[in-house]
Amino acid sequence: xxxxxxxxxxxxxxxxNGGVEPYFQPIVSLDDGHVLGFEVLARWHDPxxxxxxxxxxxxxxxxxxxxxxxxxxxxxxxFLVAAEWPHHLFLGFNVSPTQLRNSExxxxxxKAASDESFPLSRVHIEVTESGFIEDLTQPxxxxxxxxxxxCVIAMDDFGTGYSSLTWLSTLPFSKIKVxxxxxxxxxxxxxxxxxxxxxxxxxxxxxLAVVAxxxxxxQQADLLRGMGCKLAQGYLFGRPMPAxxxxxxxxxxxxxxxxxxxxxxxxxxxxxxxxxxxCESDAAAIAFMDPAGTVVxxxxxxxxxxxxxxxxxxxxxxxxLIGVTPDTIAELxxxxxxxxxxxxxxxxxxxxxxxxxxxxxVKDESSExxxxxxxxxxxxxxxxxxxxx
Length: 389
Ligand code: C2E
Ligand code: CA
Ligand code: CA
Known about the structure:
15 helices
């Protein structure tokens, strides 16, 4: 038996008898330091060899097919302990590309969450682009399935792989994590600083949340803030800690300024999924559009109100459906910048009826604009038009 086989065998028995436990590292807002969630990191303490680093055992676990078992165990333990923590906090789990090729992964994750009554909307999945993968069909399917269940997908270690940009354009990420190596070199090397600034800008222009990893100094945090980066993780804010340290940690740090905004760590996909789900029931006439005014998701009742076929509103501009103009979108943005609510509209719909329409911005956990929700309030007065006070 070679060293790797021995390591794999020891890991398997550690997984069976609780020798591996989840540690939790905070991910915080750079604006005010409040905690948004935790990355879950595996910690293996062997009774004979002592602490064994993930850098050492994760690649071996991957080769020996043990990562699913590891993930399952970490998830179940983490879901259980996190049930006591504030409900806006998400948990981020590491999943290797090998695992994404398994068509059962999403089902297993869903089962672990439902067994422990943990909402999948609080589960973030971090995928590292490790090596070259020829066929992204199954990984994409797995990630789509996880998104349809409500999970948020993050691209880990951004910038270190061969084809980060290809991945970004092919797989449905809504968050990127800038690799620690760039962040750590940022203060000494102009090149790294430029890379980080470019990644932050690229991420934001694509509507993605951007997390800077490996933030160890206040100087790095300041530079990142200057670049407009909103989220960070690193020793400056907290090291990975065992579950029983988390409540004390949370009570010592800044509480969220407005936790209603943080209740749901949101992605565009999640929001669309929520809407689709809420609306299967015919209950609400509601749609979600991207910042440019294209409908991304709409409820059955919305489609009916618009007099289009089920699902046919998606992909169309909102001004083709309700009596607004492209300028309305510009107005929405201006109102948002000024922190003013957009007034309720009363408009005629495609089928000739009148409706009160509420348009509200939808933002992610870093206050980035994801788009707008469009909700019909059902008033049917055919004689009035225009903005109502
Ligand atoms: P990662 O996903 O990039 O996780 C972040 C790593 O950076 C963690 O190392 C964390 O302890 C370390 N770190 C966080 N902040 C700082 C900082 O300010 N300075 C420095 N120097 N390091 C910081 P860790 O826990 O040793 O994990 C290493 C890698 O092993 C992880 O990198 C991840 O790729 C993998 N890993 C860990 N746990 C799991 C797991 O449960 N499943 C899988 N598939 N991979 C895991
Ligand atoms: Ca990670
Ligand atoms: Ca990382």
